[in-house]
Amino acid sequence: MSKSIERVRQAAAAAGLPVEIRRMGESTRTAEEAAAQCGVSVGQIVKSLIFKGETSGKLYLFLVSGDKRLDAARAAALTGETLGRADPREIRDRTGFAIGGVSPLGHLEPIDAYADETLTGYDIVWAAAGAHDAVFSAEPNALLAAAGATVADVAA
Ligand code: 5CA
């Protein structure tokens, strides 16, 4: 098992959320691909989006339903600073995950996390597990709590 997948498994277990990570064999890089592979609606896929604070240089994690977009103004109000895209290399170096496999859990450094409240309307959601074909499912409130995410109205 890859190091980053194992990091997700261990972080989830340590947070009280034992997960079964599935390698799908096909790409789950995008929410649409993940939904097709998991046989669920796109809204049930948790996007793990990394943004960077333009003032602090901190990375932030936003967990957003696959059928929603992050509202940049609401996100900035929550973090207290303007946010920009982090570049793929910096995301990989600082979180330990490549884009398409960024997980809600198991980042190399602690990360402030916020979650789209619409995720809590589903019985089960699916999220990336550290590789571009690796996913796990969880009850959304349990997942967001394990990720230490503040649940808020962040979706557009
Ligand atoms: N594995 C799936 C869901 S299980 C997944 O990781 N989806 S995702 O939405 O969380 O990750 C893809 C996201 O990465 C895209 O929605 C996009 O916001 C972001 N992304 C794609 N390309 C770049 C890039 N060049 N720089 C920064 N972010 C990017």
Describe it.
The structure is a single chain. With 156 residues, the chain is an alpha/beta fold. The protein has one domain: YbaK protein, CATH 3.90.960. The chain is built from five helices and eight strands. It has helices at residues 3-14, 31-38, 72-79, 88-95, 140-146, and strands spanning 22-23, 45-53, 59-65, 83-85, 112-116, 125-128, 134-138, 149-152. Strands 1, 2, 3, 4, 5, 6, 7 and 8 form an eight-stranded mixed sheet that branches. A hairpin with a 5-residue loop joins strand 6 (125-128) and strand 7 (134-138). The longest helix is centred in the N-terminal third of the chain and has 12 residues, at 3-14. The radius of gyration is 14 Å and the shape is globular. The N and C termini lie far apart (36 Å). The mean pLDDT is 97. The protein binds 5'-O-(N-(L-cysteinyl)-sulfamoyl)adenosine. The site of 5'-O-(N-(L-cysteinyl)-sulfamoyl)adenosine (5CA) has 17 residues, from helix 2, strand 2 and strand 6.
Can I get a quick summary?
The chain has five helices and eight strands. The protein is α/β, with parallel strands linked by helices and 156 residues long.
CATH class: Alpha Beta
Structural class: alpha/beta
**Count of domain modules:** 1
Average of pLDDT? 97
Q: What is the H level of CATH, i.e. the homologous superfamily?
A: YbaK/aminoacyl-tRNA synthetase-associated domain
Could you say which small molecules are bound to this protein? 5'-O-(N-(L-cysteinyl)-sulfamoyl)adenosine
Question: Over the alpha carbons, how many angstroms does the gyration radius reach?
Answer: 14 Å
Per CATH, the architecture is Alpha-Beta Complex
**Major sheet attributes:** 8 strands, mixed
Q: Helical content, roughly? A: 25-40%
Distance between the termini: 36 Å
State the CATH topology.
YbaK protein
